[in-house]
Amino acid sequence: MRYGYTIKINFTGGIISPGDLLKILAAAAFAGVKQVSFGLRQQLFIEVVSDDYTRLIKELQSKHIIYEVHSDNHPNIVSSYAAEEIFSSRTWLSEGVYKDIFDAFDYTPKLKINISDSKQSFTPLLTGNINWVASTGQHFWQLFIRFPKTNFIYAWPDVVYTNDVASITKNIEQAILDDSNNFFDNNTVDGALLYKTIMEGAMYNVKQAEGTIALPDFMLPYYEGFNRVNNRFWLGIYRRDEKFSIKFLQQACELCMATKIGQLCSTPWKSIIIKGIEEKDRHLWDGMLARHQINVRHAANELNFQVEDDCKDGLALKQFLVKHLQRDDVRTFGICIGIKTRRKSEVFSSILVRRKPLIKFLGIEFFYRYDILCAKNYNPNERTGTVFSRNNFKWLLPEQLRRAIISFYASKADGIGIGDTIKIKSDVPVKEEIVVQVHQCPDCFSIYDAVVGEPENNIAAGTLFDNLPPTYICPLCETERDNFVTINKSSLLFVAV
């Protein structure tokens, strides 16, 4: 069935009230919708046919439910709350801290905001524009700004107290939106200018950041099925087709309320987690899963994928690759495999499979080839990557992906990528930095480094960018040479120290 409209509903921080979700599901069911899905930023998607669209909208409005149609003007606030207590421990963060921050937001953000515990790798730390990462000091947060449409991250010089997170976020967003010339799509952006704009004369509870924050090695935990924590269980539910039956979700909400569970959690893996299930109630959840034929023990090498939201082609490619990984019994522990089919989308991944058309005609794409890229040190919280393999036919992809995975394990055996850190600015004098410039594609962020060249394209190491032929284009997205921008190599994301 072809759907006419996609409705998006945000759940702040991925926290879902069973009562609120029941209202949404009732509106969708009234409009004839049978299934819904969850997104990478912990939101809900409802696809509805054109004939039922008006009925659904009226129902949502009557229930005072905030939504967007075919747009993402207000990206959801992503948080690591879903990992709290089950994938994250020995931390000062708690449910109350997260909710205090969320309650302090008195506006609807237009930029992407992430609020994360650095002690976990289940949810991404730095895929937002404004990224708050819990510091080692109790109730203080480190802040990393990834300026919109750039590959540049600025580490805020101060750590910020919990009570000021929402207000500083609001002021930062307003400053960025008001000064788009400086802070949007500008690879020479001055983070210090933003800092001065926000902090000059302000009365916030802050202190200077000290040292560095360690990026945790990415180890995706198994997030499905029943799992015990102390004397309770949590239940993770993943769907291979990314679709959740409305009837199932309705019964899950009703069971939550009947057993005094106050919330569900949506995750960046398009799954849901129910925490706090009492041992005496487990049989009720078992029975509900059985009634709806919900399988909760998928192979780990299927759960490690990230696919763009509402992307049937990406999902089909994932299933094709998973089939080969399972057939060849390929280990994928510690890896996040992303699939990207759209030019401007962003996918959290250690290894990225990127589709590109050979021919475009009247907006229609023909004859696809595939590239495999690896994140810096294979850490999906990094963005700068290297090309592992280019221009593969689809039938070659499984073997090339297998080789990229082998490369990942070889790098770990050699100790690469362990203990990476994000450098925090300080007032301590340092030796003058040698400035090395590279050229970056503004669309896909690929890098041309003259030191390396592109031997696979017959461009020898040492070939200056200015000496490239006029016909040179980005090998990944085919952006023309003249559109590349010059940036300092040291500004490429994080610096290993």
The total tally of domains equals 4
Distance between the termini: 53 Å
Uncertain ranges: 417-433, 491-497
The largest sheet, given as strand count, sense and whether it forms a barrel, is: 7 strands, mixed
Proportion in β-strands = 25-35%
| Overall mean confidence score, pLDDT | 87
* Shape field: globular
Helix content: 10-25%
How many helical elements? 11
Number of DSSP-assigned strands = 27
Structural class: alpha+beta
The value of Rg in angstroms is 23 Å
What does the model show?
By secondary structure, the chain is an alpha+beta fold. It has helices at 18-30, 50-62, 95-104, 165-178, 180-183, 191-199, 246-258, 282-291, 300-303, 312-327, 397-413; strands at 5-10, 15-16, 35-38, 43-48, 68-69, 77-79, 113-116, 130-134, 140-146, 153-155, 158-161, 206-208, 212-214, 225-229, 232-237, 244-245, 264-266, 272-278, 305-307, 337-340, 351-361, 364-375, 385-392, 421-423, 437-440, 447-448, 485-488. The chain has four domains: 88-214, no CATH class; 226-300, Alpha-Beta Plaits, CATH 3.30.70; 301-421, 2-Layer Sandwich (Sulfite Reductase Hemoprotein, domain 1); 429-497, Rubrerythrin, domain 2. It is built from eleven helices and 27 strands. Helix 1 runs antiparallel to helix 7 (246-258). Residues 417-433 and 491-497 have low confidence and may be disordered.
